[in-house]
Amino acid sequence: MVSALLDRWGGLLVLQGIAKGEPNETMNAIDDAFGEARASILDVHFFSGVHVSFSFEVQGSDVATLGDALARARVVLDEDSLGALHEAKDLARAIQGTLAVTFAHGDPNVRQEIPNVPG
After folding, report:
1. Distance of CA 63 to the CA centre of its chain
2. What distance in Å separates the CA atoms of residue 108 and residue 37, rounded to the nearest whole number?
3. Which of 25, 27, 49, 84 is the most buried (most CB within 10 A)?
4. What is the distance of C-alpha 75 from the center of its chain?
5. Helix/strand/coil percentages in the chain, nearest 5
6. What is the pLDDT of residues 12-69, one digit of tens each?
7. What's the whole-model pTM score?
8. Cβ contacts of residue 57 below 8 Å, gap of 6+?
9. How far out from the chain centre does Cα 81 lie?
């Protein structure tokens, strides 16, 4: 089964879901979910007020905790994501992954502030 995960995802845990709560509250809950699973957030990209994408790293032994914590954060993962979580929990190493969340009640007109980079 571990081999199937690596073949299927190329070694990357890919999660996708929809969040139905208020986006700011949901972002805080997702942050707490990563903390509960002892996962490291490596990068975050916002796409207006309707979508966010996380890059993260989590230990295989903490994958089930991450799935449960995301469910409590009201992120509904798709079937492929749930299957990938189930398969990845058997890996005994650090796993890199992505989580893409679409906010059902997000505002597509929200502008994201991009900081100026000196130089």
Report:
1. 11
2. 30
3. 84
4. 9
5. 40, 35, 25
6. 899 999 998 888 899 999 999 999 999 999 999 988 778 899 999 999 999 999 999 9
7. 0.81
8. 39, 40, 42, 94, 95, 96, 97
9. 10
